[in-house]
Amino acid sequence: MRAIPKTIDETQALLGDAGYVCGRALATVVFLSLKLGRPLFLEGEAGVGKTEIAKALSAALGRRLIRLQCYEGLDAASAVYEWNFAAQMVAIRTAEAVEGTDREALTEELFSDRYLIRRPLLEAMSPQDGGAPILLIDELDRTDEPFEAFLLEALSDFQVTIPELGTIRAEAPPVVILTSNRTREVHDALKRRCLYHWVDYPDFDREMEILRARAPEATETLSREVVAFVQRLRKEDLFKTPGVAESIDWAKCLVALDAITLSPEVIADTLGALLKYQDDIQKLHGSEVKKLLDEARAGLAPA
Ligand SMILES: Nc1ncnc2c1ncn2[C@@H]1O[C@H](COP(=O)(O)OP(=O)(O)O)[C@@H](O)[C@H]1O
Ligand SMILES: [Mg+2]
Question: Which of 42, 244, 248, 250, when mutated, tests ligand 1's pocket best, judged by the most ligand atoms within 8 Å of its CB?
């Protein structure tokens, strides 16, 4: 476990060591979130590196990462705890087969830690070796409002009450990172609890840095073309704009195909790494790819 960084520069360097390329603005909110113990709410398009921040922070600080993946219909039972009903039933059956079972003792046993299934929120509130964990509440926009309200409460006092067991309180509150792909607006009340940062697509230089960190096998020349093309492609009206994840994937595909530079043919053959919707792929076929490539190259200063 490492101590939390003391300055914004240190935060930036720390994330950098974990392979995360982080601008000043993001480093500032991460630093403040750690220093003030406030949850960090990250919003942005899919594939811009929101989830990765939590992973990088966990790796960099040597803290455990606990992830709550949100989905439609997620409820408190799946987020906090459940009783292991099947195991309880077996225990009851077994006890029934034995004469003179102490019923009171059995009931107590059935609602003990042994039959408790800890879900991410309870896990994050429980004492940990190695300091407070990083709690990643991922893709919050996929849940519904009642769950959001529930979460608001859980995040305000960092404790969970289990009627049969009592209240479990985090000794040191977890470092909370929430993400949203903004398929809907998250409620103001929740946002107010948090520090907020909009994670945007990186500019050319930053995306180059990310490729150097995440796809070092690609040559500088190829990476420059990849980034220039993807940046140009992001200006097109697409159903799903390629994120950083796609740039990395694409660069890796091109390296695997021994491509040294881009050509309209090689782009057409590998579009599936960049665009995941047939309509978008269709749109780019033919002369469009060549035009975009020419425009992307025109923007590249000579290396
Ligand atoms: N700033 C960055 N530095 C390093 N890698 C990044 C960065 N941004 C994105 N990535 C890469 O892009 C991939 C997708 O990012 P992810 O965090 O899953 O996106 P999101 O959660 O925003 O949809 C990650 O696996 C990571 O490798
Ligand atoms: Mg994500």
Answer: 244
Q: What is the pLDDT of residues 209-237, one digit of tens each?
A: 999 999 999 999 999 999 999 999 999 99
The model carries a pTM of 0.91
Q: How far is the CA of 242 from the centre of ligand 2 (A)?
A: 14
Query: Cα(164) to centroid of ligand 2, in Å?
Result: 35
State the pLDDT at residue 286: 67
Contact 200, 44 (CB under 8 A): yes
pLDDT, residue 3, reads 87
Residues in the ligand 1 pocket, defined by CB under 6 Å: 19-21, 44, 46-52, 179, 210, 213-214, 244-245, 248
List CB contacts of 65: < 8 A, sequence separation 6 or more: 54, 55, 58, 133, 134, 136
Q: Identify the band that residue 49 occupies on the pLDDT scale cut at 50, 70 and 90.
A: very high
Task: Provide the pLDDT for residue 96.
Answer: 87
